[in-house]
Amino acid sequence: MLIDTHCHLDAAEFDADRGQVAARAHTAGVEVMVVPAVERANFDAVLRCCAHYSGCRAALGIHPMYVERAQPDDLETLRDKVGRERLVAIGEIGLDFFVPDFDAVRQEYYFVEQLKIAREFNLPVLLHIRRAQDAILKQLRRFRLKGGIAHAFNGSHQQADEFIKLGFKLGFGGAMTYPRATRLRELAATLPLESIVLETDAPDIPPVFIGKGRNSPEYLPRIAQALAELRGVSLDELALATSANARAVLGEIT
What we know:
alpha/beta; TIM Barrel; 8-stranded parallel β-sheet; 9 helices
């Protein structure tokens, strides 16, 4: 059994064949897909997707790349949804200091307010992090949450250790499959297996074997095989370990 801990199945890229995508993923052995929201406008779409497709689990949050069109009332909507819906995490939230003309103050406001909601409801968080590892760690040390997942992890070994100390798992997906991604592959091969979870980030971050096409949760087994080969373990061993890791941080999601 495999768990895709980060899959935007609600995205418009899947509108034409969402049901077939979900079915193919299940047939391939992906029994659970965690579907995170990115803004208030898609909270209900994520919830509908997870209600309709077997194995999908919802997370709600405001992504740092969407905070420019967020309003403080969105946080109250999020708090209300968290209180009424069955969610596995708050997410996708975080900081992105890579995008052009980013507003660090606005990003940090929404990030911190969502950390408060996660702490209030004792939920883990799904973190989006680009060029902001240390800034995110600073806030996580302040709030001491239940834990969560550092999605698409691409920090240093030292930063990985700090996330692990704070109860976080580290997400690896398609980016790790590229031979030229030597630093990321070294991290994937040497970090503690008990700290790693699998993800696709579909429809984004396509693995090397599909090039620039649409990523999909059905590719998770091949991503898992790539990681197993990097670590010198069997696919079965890797699947068991990463699924147990996902349940450890997100609860009994299967």
